[in-house]
Amino acid sequence: MLYALMCKDKPASLEKRMAERPAHVEFLKDLDAKGILKMAGPLLGDDEKPIGSLVVIAADSMDAARELAARDPYAIAGLFETTEIRAFNWVFRNPEA
Predict the structure, then answer these.
(1) pLDDT per residue of the chain (97 residues) written in tens, 0 to 9
(2) Are the C-beta atoms of residues 10 and 81 closer than 8 Å to each other?
(3) Continuous segment of H or E residues that includes residue 17
(4) DSSP string spanning 28-86?
(5) 5: number of CA atoms within 13 Å, CB side?
């Protein structure tokens, strides 16, 4: 099953995001190498600066998706104000379909 992780940064946290970005990118590269990561990128504000993250992963269950989300260096650093996780059905332009 695919899960979409929609994470919103705390206000005024761009500096923290940039400081943690290298560890976050390495985390995502590891997920990609394992075939878990399906897509990822920052959510942007009106000024086109990052205000959160959208990450789509493959996981066996919602609990597994939650556990993985909690291991993200951004989450560990306390960057996110909210994290919403939803089952996701990739219908259009899914390269694996």
Answers:
(1) 999 999 999 999 999 999 999 999 999 999 999 999 999 999 999 999 999 999 999 999 999 999 999 999 999 999 999 999 999 999 998 888 7
(2) yes
(3) helix 14-33
(4) HHHHHHTT-EEEEEEEE-TTSSEEEEEEEEE-SSHHHHHHHHHHSHHHHTT-EEEEEEE
(5) 32
